[in-house]
Amino acid sequence: MMSHRGFAFVAATTVLAAVTAGCSAGNDATPAGASSGESVQFSCCTAADISAVRHPGETFKMHWIRTSYPVSAGHSPASVVLGVSLSVGYRDVAALKAANGGAPGGRAAATPIHTSDTAGAGPVSTVTIPSTATSGFYDLTTTVTSDGGRSSGDHIIRVAAR
Question: Which residues, if any, are the signal sequence (predicted)?
Fold first, then answer.
């Protein structure tokens, strides 16, 4: 008699085989001769980009993460604008969070990157901490704008005097 663990393995394997068969090239809805393409989405950044302590006057890079997914052959490329801005500084994280997204922006901003959802390499934004920045915690806001839609994210970075 098969154990509970053995039955679960056989059931999982059967489901996996059925799903794999349903996704195989033989069942592809793309007509013969038409190639399906790849589109990309961008999101903020590697952990190293935001975890390091930054310093007034420092220039650092924000590496956008590129995630690809398949699209149908008729997909039209969409323009994408990637942005990064830095708020004013706060003495501590609690004060920054108390601003509840009301942190004034415009302290610093990277040049917007204009790309598309079919672009190859992951873009890199460059941010310069103002030389007059005080020690504290700053709200780093990233934005992705495409086809009239916009998504954003916030990250806390620390700036300390050298």
Answer: 1-17
The pTM of the full predicted model, rounded to 2 decimals, is 0.70
Q: What is the domain partition of the chain in residue ranges?
A: 41-159
Low-confidence ranges of the chain (pLDDT < 70): 1-36, 100-106
Which CATH code, of 2.40.50.100, 3.90.226.10, 3.20.20.70, 2.60.40.3880, is assigned to 41-159?
Answer: 2.60.40.3880
Distance, in Å, from the CA atom of 24 to the CA atom of 12, rounded to the nearest integer, reads: 18
